[in-house]
Design goal:
The protein has about 500 residues and is mainly alpha-helical. It has two domains: about 15-185, no CATH class; about 190-395, Up-down Bundle (Methane Monooxygenase Hydroxylase, Chain G, domain 1), CATH 1.20.58. Helices cover about 65% and strands about 5% of the residues. The chain has 19 helices and three strands. Helix 15 (about 295-325) runs antiparallel to helix 16 and helix 15 (about 295-325) runs parallel beside helix 17. The radius of gyration is 34 Å and the shape is elongated. It starts with a helix and ends with a strand. It comes from Arachis hypogaea (Peanut). One of its GO terms (cellular component) is membrane. InterPro entries: ALMT.
Length: about 500
C-alpha cells in the first residue's frame, strides 16, 4: 500500500472512531462544547484590555483553573472547584502570614523560617493524603494547598507586593472555578447522583437477566429466550465507579427527585450486595459446562425447586430494578421473595431424600452444588430487597399499591402436577383445648398439627382417597409433624 492509501485508511479509522464515541454517549460531545464555552469566557481576561489591565498575567490562572477543574459530572466539577478555591484561600492566607512572620527574623533568618514552615506544612499535608476519607474527597484540595503555599512563600521572598499577588491569584482562580460551575450546572448538566442511581439499577437488572438465562441454559427451557450470561461480569468490577460517583454525588445540590441530603451511602450498600450476588453467580456459571457428568435422575428431582428459585429470584431482582428506575417502593418483589423461600424449603426436603445407592458420588456433587448455590443466591436476593426497601424509606420513594386485591391474586404455581404432597389437617387434642378454654378465657391461640403424607398414587386417586393418619404411615417414615400456632 502506498503512503497516500495508508494515510487515507488511518483518517477513515479515526473518523469512524470519533463517530462511534459520539454515538455511544452524545453527552461527551456536549461536554466538549461546554469546556470550549468556559475557556472562551475566561479568555476575555486577555482579549479585553480593561480586564487584562486589572489582573495582568495573573489572569492566566483563570484559564488554568478551567482546564483542570471542569469535569464530566456536576459533582466532579463542584468537588474540584470548591477544593481548589478553599485550598487557594487557606494556602494564600497562610503564605502571607508566613511571610510576615519570617520578616520579623531579619534578612538572614527570613529564608530559614520560610524553608522550615514550607517543610512542615508540605510534609504534614502530604501525610494527610494517606487517610482514606481525605484521599476520597479532598485529595485534590490538599495538592492545590501544597502548590499554592509553596508558590506564595517562595514568590514572596522576592516580591514585595505579596498581598497583591495572593489577591490576584485568588480572584482569578475563583472566577475560573465559578465559570466552570455555572456552565456545568446550567448547560445540559450531567449529575453524578443520577449516574449512580442508574448504575446500581442497571447492575441489578443484569443479575436478573443472568438468572433468567441460566434457567433456560441449564434446564434446556426452550420456551424462554436465553438472556445474556455475561452481563454479570461488569457488576463484579463496578465498585470503583460506584464509590467515585457516591463521593461526587455528595457535592451536588438537590436536583430533580434527589434531595439535598439524599442517602447516597445506601446506594453503596446496595451495590455491595449486588456484587456479592454477582460473585455467587460467577461460581454458579462454572457449572454451565456440558462436560460435567451429572446424575440425571437427581437433576430431574431437583429441577422444579431450582427452576422456581431461579425464576422467582430473577423476577424479584427485575422488580427491584424497575422500582429504582421509577423511584417507587419495591413492594412488587415481596411475593417473589416469598415464593423463592418456599422453593428453598422444598429443596431442603428433596436434599434429605438423597440416596447414594443408585448413583455415584461424583455425579451427585454437581447437582447438589448447583442447588446449594441457588439457595445462597436466593438469600442474597432477599438481602438486596431489604436494602432496596431501606433505600426507598430513606429517600421517600413513592408507595405504589397493587391494583389487584390479595383475595383475587392467584396462588403461586410452585410444583407441577403430580409432585404436590397431599396434606391432612387435624385439630390436635380437642378435649385438652376445650378444657384449657374453660380454664382460661383469654387464650387466643390454637395448636394445629399438620401431617404431611407423601403418596405415590396419582393426583386423581389421592383426591378421592380417604385421609390417612400418621400411624398408618409410620413405617414409611413419610409423616412430618409440624406444630403451628395460629393467632386469632
Amino acid at each position: 500500500m502506498d503512503s497516500g492509501g495508508f494515510f487515507k485508511s488511518n483518517v477513515m479509522n479515526v473518523a469512524k472512531s470519533i463517530k462511534k464515541t459520539g454515538k455511544d454517549d452524545p453527552r461527551r460531545v456536549i461536554h466538549s462544547l461546554k469546556v470550549g464555552l468556559a475557556l472562551t469566557l475566561v479568555s476575555l481576561f486577555y482579549y479585553s484590555r480593561p480586564l487584562y489591565d486589572g489582573f495582568g498575567v495573573a489572569g492566566m490562572w483563570a484559564v488554568l483553573t478551567v482546564v483542570v477543574v471542569f469535569e464530566f459530572t456536576v459533582g466532579g466539577t463542584l468537588s474540584k472547584g470548591l477544593n481548589r478555591g478553599c485550598a487557594t484561600l487557606l494556602a494564600g492566607a497562610l503564605g502571607v502570614g508566613a511571610q510576615h512572620l519570617a520578616i520579623a527574623f531579619g534578612k538572614k533568618g527570613e529564608p530559614i523560617v520560610l524553608g522550615a514552615l514550607l517543610f512542615i506544612l508540605a510534609a504534614g499535608a502530604t501525610f494527610l493524603r494517606f487517610f482514606p476519607r481525605i484521599k476520597a474527597r479532598y485529595d485534590y484540595g490538599v495538592v492545590i494547598f501544597i502548590l499554592t503555599f509553596s508558590l506564595v512563600t517562595v514568590s514572596g521572598f522576592r516580591v514585595n507586593e505579596i498581598l497583591e499577588l495572593a489577591e490576584q491569584r485568588l480572584l482569578t482562580i475563583l472566577i475560573g472555578g465559578a465559570t466552570c460551575m455555572v456552565v456545568s450546572i446550567l448547560v445540559c448538566p450531567v449529575w453524578a447522583g443520577q449516574e449512580l442511581h442508574n448504575l446500581v439499577a442497571s447492575n441489578i437488572q443484569k443479575l436478573a437477566n443472568y438468572l433468567e438465562g441460566f434457567q433456560a441454559e441449564y434446564f434446556q427451557d426452550k420456551q424462554k429466550s436465553k438472556s445474556s450470561l455475561q452481563g454479570y461480569k461488569s457488576v463484579l468490577g463496578s465498585k470503583a465507579s460506584e464509590e467515585s460517583l457516591g463521593n461526587l454525588a455528595r457535592w451536588e445540590p438537590g436536583h430533580g427527585a434527589f434531595r439535598l441530603r439524599h442517602p447516597w451511602k445506601q446506594y453503596l450498600k446496595l451495590g455491595a450486595l449486588a456484587r456479592e450476588c454477582a460473585y455467587k453467580i460467577e461460581t454458579l456459571n462454572t457449572y454451565l459446562n456440558p462436560e460435567i457428568q451429572e446424575c440425571m435422575e437427581l437433576r430431574c428431582k431437583f429441577e422444579e425447586p431450582c427452576k422456581i428459585m431461579s425464576s422467582e429470584s430473577s423476577k424479584a431482582l427485575k422488580a427491584i430494578s424497575s422500582s429504582m428506575k421509577t423511584m417507587t417502593a419495591p413492594s412488587a418483589a415481596k411475593c417473589h421473595i416469598e415464593n423463592s423461600k418456599t422453593a428453598t424449603k422444598l429443596l431442603k426436603v428433596a436434599l434429605e431424600t438423597i440416596s447414594l445407592e443408585d448413583a455415584q458420588l461424583i455425579a451427585i456433587i454437581p447437582v447438589v452444588t448447583i442447588a446449594s448455590i441457588l439457595e445462597e443466591i436466593t438469600k442474597t436476593v432477599e438481602k438486596v430487597y431489604d436494602s432496596a426497601s431501606e433505600l426507598s424509606n430513606l429517600a421517600h420513594f413513592k408507595n405504589v399499591e397493587s391494583n389487584v386485591s390479595p383475595e383475587k391474586q392467584p396462588p403461586p404455581h410452585l410444583l407441577h402436577r403430580g409432585t404436590i404432597n397431599p396434606l391432612v389437617v387435624d385439630i390436635a387434642n380437642n378435649n385438652n383445648n376445650n378444657n384449657n378454654n374453660n380454664n382460661n378465657n383469654n387464650n387466643d391461640q390454637i395448636e394445629i398439627t399438620i401431617h404431611d403424607i407423601i403418596s405415590s398414587e396419582s393426583p386423581e386417586k389421592v383426591e378421592n382417597a380417604p385421609p390417612k393418619s400418621c400411624a398408618e404411615n409410620a413405617q414409611s417414615n413419610s409423616c412430618a409433624v409440624v406444630n403451628i400456632i395460629v393467632c386469632h
